[in-house]
Amino acid sequence: MEGMETRVLMAVCILLGLVSVGVAAPGSATFYKPHQPSDCHRVKEPGPMVAAASDSLWSNGAICGKKFNVTCLGPPSTGEKFPCKGSVIVTVVDRCASPRCETTLELSRPAFNKIVNPKLVKIIIDYKMV
């Protein structure tokens, strides 16, 4: 019986691990103007939907070239009303280093404008690697 309990416990742990992979993480975003050369030297900009990753995501550049689905949740407690416009998929092509970087991701202007009113400067997001 003990072997069966161990197998069930292992199966539950594996399933929980698989579920957590697809969960979005909370964060914040602003916009920036991408430049070349970027900190992701080996990644060629794949178009206008790009982002710079903060130090919390950077991982010595391992994040370069990874794609994220970024969803606008709203402004950071300013009380400002505006419509979020959904999600955008971006590719990380640069680093947003501390102390200048105060957000999780900096999105290119086209990516930022796709998910939020362009009058805003900073937004609360959910993001998930795809």
From TrEMBL:
Domain Expansin-like EG45: 27-130
Keyword Signal in record: yes
Protein name in the entry: Expansin-like EG45 domain-containing protein
Any single GO BP term: systemic acquired resistance
Organism expressing this protein natively: Corymbia citriodora subsp. variegata
Keywords, sorted A to Z: Signal
Listed PROSITE patterns: EXPANSIN_EG45
A GO-annotated cellular component: apoplast
Record-linked CDD domains: DPBB_EG45-like
Record carries keyword Signal: yes
